[in-house]
Design goal:
Blueprint (H helix, E strand, L loop, with lengths): L3 E3 H8 L3 H10 L5 E2 L5 E4 H7 L10 E8 L2 H5 L2 H15 L3 E9 L8 H11 L5 E4 L2 H4 L4 H10 L4 E3 L9 H20 L4 H15 L2
Parallel strand pairs: 4-5, 4-6, 6-7
Antiparallel strand pairs: 1-3, 2-3
Helix pairs in contact: 9-10
């Protein structure tokens, strides 16, 4: 959905008086959208047209997002392998790779530097598609919510590969333990006997997959 500017915002960008915009509207020199209340809203593309800024088709511009949970995984080359696989995937499908964003963090961590940059690029409509290796590279839980959010900006998420490698099991275990530890700590307190008992039981349960 295209961004609609208020009369004040459009005038500031164009350097004209509001009466000038009203005049252009009556003369048909600018396309104006009316709100339910009758207020003028100017499409961003119209402002750019009058400023002489050509619209760039970003539909084929892709942002590649890669993530590993630990520096050990990064040192083993897991992060680089993700990059190379996705670069190949994007290029064989004629996408222009606008950015490669990476994080070394848990998929449960919502405050990731690379992920935040991705959000900003989507919000500024700098890209037309996001490409990830697997769903959980973007987030461990709630992928569908992010998918719907990005769709609202016209940016689909492409999951290049459906079946995750077996070596991601350990990463899943670590995320599971992190969730149990967090909730057990809130319920029982981290110094309590019950907390230690619950954590130990879960650790034992996932020790031998």
């Amino acid at each position: 959905m295209e961004r609609l500017l208020t009369l004040k915002e459009a005038c500031r960008l164009l350097g004209v008086h509001p009466n000038t915009l009203r005049k252009w509207d009556k003369q048909g020199k600018i396309r104006v959208v009316r709100t339910v209340g009758g207020r003028r809203r100017i499409p961003e593309s119209e402002v750019k047209r009058l400023m002489g800024i050509k619209e760039i088709d970003v539909s084929r511009r892709a942002a590649i997002y890669v993530r590993v949970s630990s520096h050990d995984q990064k040192q083993k080359g897991d992060l680089e392998r993700q990059k190379q696989h996705l670069l190949k995937y994007a290029r064989t499908r004629n996408y222009e790779v606008a950015a490669i964003l990476e994080d070394v963090a848990s998929g449960l961590d919502e405050n990731r530097k690379g992920l935040n940059k991705l959000f900003n690029m989507v919000d500024r409509r700098e890209i037309g598609v996001v490409i990830v290796s697997f769903k959980d590279r973007l987030t461990r839980f709630g992928f569908e919510y992010l998918e719907e959010l990005f769709k609202a900006y016209g940016v689909p998420i492409i999951v290049a590969f459906q079946e995750e490698p077996k070596d991601y099991y350990q990463e899943l275990v670590e995320d599971l333990l992190a969730i149990v530890t967090s909730f057990a700590g809130r319920i029982y307190g981290k110094r309590s006997h019950k907390y230690k008992k619950v954590v130990k039981a879960v650790e034992q349960a996932v020790k031998d997959p």
